[in-house]
Write a structure and sequence with these properties.
Blueprint (H helix, E strand, L loop, with lengths): L16 E7 L3 H8 L12 E7 L5 E11 L2 E7 H15 L5 E4 L3 E5 L12 E6 L2 E8 L5 E5 L15 H7 L36 H10 L5 E8 L10 E4 L4 E10 L3 E8 L8 E3 L7 E5 L10
Antiparallel strand pairs: 1-4, 1-5, 2-3, 3-4, 6-9, 7-8, 8-9, 10-13, 10-15, 11-12, 11-14, 12-13
Length: 301
């Protein structure tokens, strides 16, 4: 539901999101070796979707990164997930000339910034008194994402605010939740199809597994979008998706309230689409199931 931004503090708009700052001479080098994206090719102002994987290629966290300077990168993600990620990365940061720290920045989504349809897919960096305090990122032609420091004056205060989860659902952007850390390969989440994984960069943690599946294997599951009745409100990310025979064919990745229905992002076996799918063992039935990948995808060809 749209919300007036003038009556609610910015930090309460998306309380489950946080922004971390990675700063230091090795900031981009560190991310190059730890994430799926190519940060060496990312210039100042670049908007970069990326993921952190474990040695088995399983996704520990997703993040939307903005390169502020050659030595500073901001990372937006689920607060609970990034807290775990920070603990995981601590031993590696000890050998890096960079530090990862939380910020006081808040996040919200609204209609596109003026002229956003004509802008590149980079981030707009806005300073006040010589200090960065606002970042604007175009998500698509309908939405922009706004990051603001706690001390900033919101220059682009929107008339309406759209929950980030709705924007992620509309744009088929799968997110890692605290209950699904380490549960999925990037291909399960379509990260190999939406600019989250680079297959031309050098090595990173989990790269061998991810690349082998891309070049020599076939993804068994792919991201799909579906609807469920409000009766499914008690389900959680990671819960199973079953077919008519009760066999598990996938799982729930993210859920978002759409009024009288729930929007559901799921990862399922592509061949099961067209048959009845349920949440859990014959729980709420999914409707309007649609693939978030092309028909020529390697999992369907």
């Amino acid at each position: 539901m749209a919300t007036s931004s003038t009556s609610i503090p910015i930090h309460s708009l998306e309380p489950d999101e946080c922004i971390l700052e990675l700063a230091g001479a090795d900031a981009k080098v560190f991310l190059q070796g730890q994430t799926t994206a190519d940060f060496q090719a990312a210039e100042v102002g670049a908007r970069v979707y990326t993921a952190f994987c474990d040695a088995k290629g399983r996704v520990l966290a997703d993040a939307l990164a903005v390169v502020v300077t050659d030595t500073t990168v901001l990372l937006r993600g689920r607060k609970s997930v990034l807290e775990q990620l920070a603990t995981h990365l601590k031993p590696y940061l000890a050998f890096s000339k960079s530090t990862l720290t939380p910020t006081d920045w808040g996040v919200y989504c609204s209609g596109p910034a003026a002229g956003a349809e004509n802008e590149s897919e980079g981030a707009q960096l806005i300073e006040e008194n010589g200090e960065l305090n606002t970042v604007v990122i175009r998500r698509d032609t309908k939405f922009s994402e706004y990051w603001h420091s706690a001390a900033s004056k919101i220059r682009h205060a929107p008339k309406e605010v759209t929950p980030l989860a709705r924007v992620d659902f509309a744009t088929a952007r799968a997110r890692v939740e605290v209950t699904t850390v380490g549960a999925y390969l990037p291909q399960d989440l379509n990260y190999d199809l939406n600019e989250t994984v680079s297959f031309t960069k050098g090595c990173y943690t989990g790269q061998e597994i991810v690349a082998r599946l891309h070049y020599r294997g076939t993804p068994k599951r792919r991201l799909h979008r579906a609807l469920a009745s409000a009766a499914a409100a008690e389900v959680q990310p990671g819960d199973s998706i079953t077919n008519g025979d009760g066999r598990r064919v996938g799982s729930i990745i993210n859920l978002v309230s759409l009024g009288e229905q729930l929007g559901v992002l799921i990862e399922v076996i592509p061949d099961t689409i067209g048959n009845s799918l349920f949440i859990g063992e014959k729980g709420p039935k999914l409707s309007s199931v649609e693939a978030c990948h092309p028909t020529t995808d390697q999992s369907t060809g």
